[in-house]
């Protein structure tokens, strides 16, 4: 489905909702005219409303007022005006119920209220094959809430979780997804131009947000970096490198995949940032006794410039803000995290 078709689909849905609102408004207006008219003919307020409802709905109850000539003429006018309005309103209401527009609209509002209080979540723009895989992987992480932005209503309906049905290139849609409060933004739209535009918009709305963008061609990678993406991923290039690794070193490739993504494996890879209040900040690996204290093994250290020191020397000093890449069991990594962050 092209962007134009998707746009027309969304506009058609909004038009149907507008038709329902308009029909209800017309019905209320007719009842208001009838009530005012019967009040002018001498009925009490409750009797005037009652007479209006029974007349417009043609239920055939008796008149509650004196059937004078003026009363009869006004009733004829109200029947002719009201019956058509009631039939139109019922038709629009039945259409909305059959198509699920009412429950969809209230469900959307309930979801937006939930998202209004979200913080530290991840926004995923695009629910294609890549976006769905990202959402599934992140959704399996403990404490990670994912909000999906998808402009295709058919795809948006397949999202199990929080979703914003709209065009991610619009600032208002990004704000509804909570981009100003999120932990990270994933831009995985089908077109590189859209990915560049969303990255620019998100960087303007939230200068410090961490952005991971998808690139379809190599030339788009530099543009996405210039637009403000912190990381750029080319699925085709990664897929090719993965296939080559399976040929050259299949066991190493399998181990890394399992260590990163298979929760059943005893050992896991994890990254931990050394905090300023940590007891290991400013001390060497040997002085900190990380391996003895936690059982986890530090494989690499990344400094503030983004450079890695693999297989670090025990005499190397760990500074606040540096990131440790470690391997160990969940228990060992939890103990290491507590130590390097200074928690507890």
Describe this structure in words.
By secondary structure, the protein is α/β, with parallel strands linked by helices. It folds into three domains: 3-99, Helix Hairpins; 118-233, NAD(P)-binding Rossmann-like Domain (Rossmann fold, 3-Layer(aba) Sandwich), CATH 3.40.50.720; 266-341, Regulator of K+ conductance, C-terminal domain (Alpha-Beta Plaits). The protein has helices spanning 3-40, 45-56, 69-99, 101-116, 129-139, 153-156, 171-176, 192-205, 218-227, 235-248, 250-261, 285-288, 290-294, 330-341, and strands at 122-125, 146-150, 162-165, 184-187, 210-214, 231-233, 268-273, 283-284, 297-302, 308-310, 317-318, 323-328. Strands 3-2-1-4-5-6 form a six-stranded parallel sheet, with helices on both faces. The chain has a four-stranded antiparallel sheet with strand order 7-12-9-10, with helices on both faces. It has a two-stranded antiparallel ribbon with strand order 8-11. Helix 1 runs antiparallel to helix 3 (69-99), helix 8 (192-205) runs parallel beside helix 9 and helix 10 (235-248) packs across helix 11. The protein is elongated and about 105 Å long.
């Amino acid at each position: 489905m092209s962007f134009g078709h998707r746009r027309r689909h969304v506009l058609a849905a909004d038009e149907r909702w507008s038709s329902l609102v308009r029909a209800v408004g017309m019905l209320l207006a007719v009842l208001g005219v009838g009530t005012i008219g019967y009040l002018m003919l001498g009925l009490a307020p409750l009797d005037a409303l009652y007479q209006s409802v029974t007349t417009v709905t043609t239920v055939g109850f008796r008149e509650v007022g004196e059937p004078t000539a003026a009363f009869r003429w006004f009733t004829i006018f109200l029947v002719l005006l009201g019956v058509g309005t009631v039939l139109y309103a019922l038709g629009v209401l039945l259409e909305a119920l059959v198509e699920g527009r009412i429950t969809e609209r209230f469900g959307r509002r309930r979801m937006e209220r939930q998202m209004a209080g979200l913080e530290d979540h991840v926004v995923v723009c695009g629910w294609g094959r890549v976006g769905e895989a990202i959402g599934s992987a992140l959704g399996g992480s403990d404490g990670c809430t994912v909000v999906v932005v998808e402009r295709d209503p058919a795809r948006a309906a397949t999202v199990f979780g929080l979703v914003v049905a709209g065009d991610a290139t619009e600032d208002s849609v990004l704000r509804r997804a909570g981009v100003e409060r999120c932990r990270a933004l994933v831009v995985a739209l089908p077109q590189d131009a859209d990915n560049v535009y969303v990255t620019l918009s998100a960087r303007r709305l939230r200068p410090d947000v961490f952005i991971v963008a998808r690139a379809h061609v190599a030339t788009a990678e530099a543009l996405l970096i210039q637009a403000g993406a912190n990381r750029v991923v080319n699925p085709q290039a990664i897929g090719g490198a993965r296939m080559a690794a399976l040929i050259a070193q299949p066991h190493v490739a399998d181990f890394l995949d399992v260590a990163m993504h298979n929760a059943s494996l005893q050992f896991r890879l994890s990254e931990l940032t050394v905090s300023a209040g940590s007891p290991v900040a400013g001390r060497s690996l040997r002085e900190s006794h990380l391996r003895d204290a936690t059982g986890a093994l530090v494989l690499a250290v990344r400094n503030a410039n983004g450079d890695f020191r693999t297989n670090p020397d025990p005499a190397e000093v760990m500074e606040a803000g540096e990131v440790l890449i470690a391997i160990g069991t969940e228990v060992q990594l939890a103990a290491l995290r507590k130590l390097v962050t200074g928690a507890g």
